Amino acid sequence: MVMIRETDVFRQDAQQQGKLLTPQQREKLLRPYLPEPPRPAWASQTKSKPVRNFLKTQIHVLLFITIHTLFSVYIRLRQAYHAIYSRTLAILYYHHRTPELIQKDVRKLANVPNHLSAILELDVEEKAEAGLEALLDDLAELAAWTACAGIQKLTVYERTGLLKQYIPATHRAVSAKLHAYFGQDRPSLQVKAPHTASYLNGEGVIPEDAEPRTDLGHLSILLISEEDGRSTLVDLTKTLTEMSQREKLSTDDISLDLIDVEISESVMDEPDLLVLFGPDVELKGYPPWQLRLTEIFHAPDNHAVEYQVFLRALHRFAKVQMRFGR
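RESULT FIELD:
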């Protein structure tokens, strides 16, 4: 507690504008009542212990190297196992470009998808023409396997939309591959893209309501890209909002069924099976609305479009039970 005498002295000094006491006397007067000054950071630090710090650092480095080594060994063993497994299946189930062998592989399956979809990726490290040729070859092989398995609808997603710019070339590449598999009795082929005229049997642009030949089978290929995904949902939302504001559509009429019908007509319906041929599970902007009930198959550490991956996907789909929330 501040003493009365010290208080009076301090006030008299203040009234005389600091002439009564010297700065040293004022400091001495106030020092007992001031808080202790903070200690410098260096004063609170303990004495340095170089040996202990060195051992702690070495232990941390040893733990890091051990974890990194174990994880690297696991990754290498997993990749080796998947490589050996994939090569074994590729040898045992090689199709020799014979539709009868592929049909034999899928004949015993309890269920085969009616609508198959796959994600293909353009190799950006290759030159433009080489990358496009490799992409077309992968698509043609996949289309031939699909036709041999009796699946009539194939949707191919390529993120950049390059395939959609070369629909005639895509049709020629797939037709040539079907000819290599089936000969003259190959199925009819239709290649199309959303909001784009389709090609049927090399006859050029045809109306969307044209009827394909079905006596030798039919394969319909739909090419989609990233712009057919979320941007389609955004455009549909804007359209429904404008119609609702203009009172052309009641808000009670906007439902999941309406959205599903509109998206199915403008882009595509929902595929039964989606096959990923890349090493990781990446959808790469695939239209999200169409994947609500789709079975997705992925082969770990796979880097190519191979028949054994396609066949494994069909086998996995045949074992799936669709409960629809029940």
